């Protein structure tokens, strides 16, 4: 196959608006996790490798909270209300906050006066310990997932950009009736043990009707240009934006934020100026980890991902790359990097090269870094390892 | 100079601490810093009454080795294969062993990587195992097969569905069917029973299992006259599938073949429903887990997949297996590897029973390759003259609220390859 | 004259030692043979990464990628071209090894070039990304076996432990000689201060790229050995975690110390293998041990930070702490035996081993952040100095 031809043939322009939305939804979660990386890095100049594991523990907390509320496997409870969802969110944010602070206190603080690379290895150690230690005590075989009933927002928000073809609807109604009749005939024939060839003929008739009906339904859906956003993902996106605005406000306009910026700028001078550096670092870890908790809870609840103790690795790496892409240590940069990664991955999938999407995300990163060695919004500084 | 002395002394002490701890642990003392909440949730491991037991090779027992992914990505499958194996060994030992000799199951961890899998297999061989059982993935099995090749130790693979394996039929056997069967079965089912003509494939590009299954499905479906309208890829552990589902939707498929494991299939199907993708969902034995109903939600109900057996089946093997599992570990097997691990050890034990000399790997190998009509949980297994691949029937089951419902069985001869 | 005699002597000794190791390992059976072989590979990997990370100060966390490139380069060449060469045995292996090294060196050049502009964590993420790109490329390439892996033709299966260890020794020798001669000074200068060294006329570009090329060539050669030893390589054999493991070896041994990374390479490879032999541990003794270890580590850390008395007393204090820790563990274990939920829980060694490995990592880093060897090298004069003798130092002091 000619590469050039297939490349252009692969572009489906009608799906472009939907894909842009998909990219933003994907990027939102990267951005949320990347904020945690970037905040810690900004303050301590430490890549917190255990951040992905905090994310994983947050997802497990949400799972346990949902079990506690009675939404276990095979639960007969009906769809819950928004209150339960809030409980899940708060539980997961609290646990993540505590875990993050504990990691900082017991693993990173004793390393603060040491070379950065030693702290980095400790971070890798903590990350491995949580992955493998967690596997001893957390349920992972088979990987459990959160019952979708705990989430009351399972609908879809649809926006019609270009109207569909009304004629298809008529045909669809007709095909539906045809399908129902043929299906009934087939079921009856099967139940009354009629000869095999008769049943088979009826089955094929039913399948033909089913196919026509499905085809019409999908063509109806595909005609015109539409954007569909699952409510859960919309909430995820909205929460991310709100949390980011709150964070920016906190960092830019409050005393704590000013102290954070001061510590980030110069650790020693800040402490000479009377800033309680230990407290600021703790707060940074607390906030970063709580954001990871929020991301984890929404990821596990709205997307239905089964959890293992390695659940945090991939989001962690992606978010880390996003943070570096935007300029690590820079809060708007992390958000920008997250969205860029999401859009880039989606663009690659859209173009039909889904199997290379992760590779291309990294190629984008390398190219960006070649031109902006300090990331998109960061500034390159000479530093030693 | 004093500084250097101090640091040298320090390293010595650090090494000593470490060495002491390791030694303490080796003598049963135990050592490790647990993670948050290491004390609370031990219920997940203590719920089972069957444990691996003593791993020191016992010269008076017949030793069967098991390579399992006890750590790493494949742990959910690895643990099930281990539990199934424990069950099978426990059963034969309770029945008095083989000719009065007890069987010992030695377990080694492959950490889900081929390289460590090979080390694990060589450890088992050096401990005197006359047969090695494992693994759940084809890549690791290939390494085990290579490790056992020179000494001609029989290897019974649990879940390696890749058609070509080193030494298959010579000293390597399997209890699962190959992708050569599974893909065509689902293609035939989709084409004939469901009347699908335009099917799209979704492949987990990181899992060889998934890529081969997709390929065999595609070949068979196209040969029968169907059309594969699109193939999209993802990698294990991905959580958001919106972009690829939007692509698929534009191609207007009437069916979706998802060849990956249930850990990603569940979320894909859930998100496909949200994306408005109205199609029939099909898959392979990677779907087999009770958890798929939770992660897939309501959207997965009505999906079809190919399985080795069916929980609700009436065969006595299935019934006793499920009862024993319930008694030993509680619940039902989390993945299909529970039954396959049980059958793989079962085949090895069956070979041992017929072997002229249970301490010689050579005669055990000969006996295993002569296996005929072994009634396993996953079907009747015959390895004699089959090139290492059992010609088992495959079931197509439908997912419903109450679990897996039997839909149709395919004998090997019925499948259009 | 003496110089050459010593050199020739040590070379002969090294080669003889490698062959002795080969015959020892063969006599001990397949498992020991495999472990000795892999240990040699890990030593090579650790020392070669040390050249990039420790000696030149470039933060690379993608070393497994070069290992992988070398493995696939050699494996693919063996399968497709080596049959027609008419070479056999060690000579063919040597050619394949060189191919692996060259392919990986080219990859090192590709990664080294952007590193001219990038520093610290930005470089780290590029090397990490490079590893992922390589993995995804291989995974999607049918001639390389895709996600399943590449089976290397059985006729190219070579089991030369001596060659692996000779490679490791060569790698150590290259790094050592670099440090001992004037050629090495620019590397150290770049590590200590890039701007100052470029002001002093050091060609920073060349130094960085050279370090990347040499380091990755050795990793690639190690990969070639692996491919032709195992007969099967797959993308899952070279995960991101492997890069972290190699990095850990370098840092734990002491960043910049060749001795440290070589030893840590062997030891860290062996620890998880050793831990396979652990017996199942009951919940009560496990929890007791967790508490005892945390307490002991805390006390040792306190002593290290706050007690500046003479070394004899310090050593006694450490020893006391350890004994107290063991006693504490025994007492607590006895107490926890009465808690049924703990006493009945059993943890198999296979599940614990990775936990113990990671805990060891954290504890060692907490207690000795500069690595076990810090920047020291093994040498006879170092031993003599340790024992209190005054010996003129010959090594480039760091």
What does this structure look like?
Chain A is mainly alpha-helical and 385 residues long. Chain A folds into 2 domains: 18-156 and 228-371, ABC transporter involved in vitamin B12 uptake, BtuC; 164-223. Helices cover 70% and strands 3% of the residues of chain A. Chain A has 14 helices and 2 strands. Chain A has helices at 3-9, 16-44, 51-68, 82-108, 116-137, 167-191, 196-222, 231-253, 255-265, 267-272, 277-303, 313-326, 331-350, 357-371; strands spanning 156-162, 225-230. In chain A, strands 1-2 form a two-stranded antiparallel ribbon. In chain A, helix 4 (82-108) packs across helix 11 and helix 9 packs across helix 11 (277-303). Chain A is elongated. Chain B has a 7-stranded mixed sheet, with helices on both faces. Chain B has a 5-stranded parallel sheet with strand order 2-1-3-4-5, sandwiched between helices. In chain B, strands 11-12 form a two-stranded antiparallel sheet. In chain B, strand 6 (198-204), helix 7 and strand 7 form a beta-alpha-beta unit. Chain B is elongated and about 65 Å long. Chain B is α/β, with parallel strands linked by helices. Chain B folds into 2 domains: 52-177 and 315-386, Response regulator (Rossmann fold, 3-Layer(aba) Sandwich); 179-307 and 396-414, Response regulator (Rossmann fold), CATH 3.40.50. Chain C is mostly helical and 398 residues long. Chain C folds into 2 domains: 15-277, ABC transporter involved in vitamin B12 uptake, BtuC; 281-347. Chain C is built from 16 helices and 4 strands. Chain C has helices at 2-27, 30-55, 63-80, 89-112, 120-139, 161-180, 185-192, 194-199, 204-230, 240-253, 258-274, 283-306, 311-336, 340-343, 349-367, 380-386; strands spanning 150-151, 232-233, 281-282, 346-347. In chain C, the strands form 2 sheets. Chain C has a two-stranded antiparallel ribbon with strand order 1-2. In chain C, strands 3-4 form a two-stranded antiparallel ribbon. The mean pLDDT of chain C is 86. Classes of the chains: A mainly alpha (385), B alpha/beta (417), C mainly alpha (398). Chains in contact: A-B, A-C, B-C. Chains A and C meet through helix 5, helix 12 and helix 14 of A and helix 5, helix 10 and helix 15 of C.
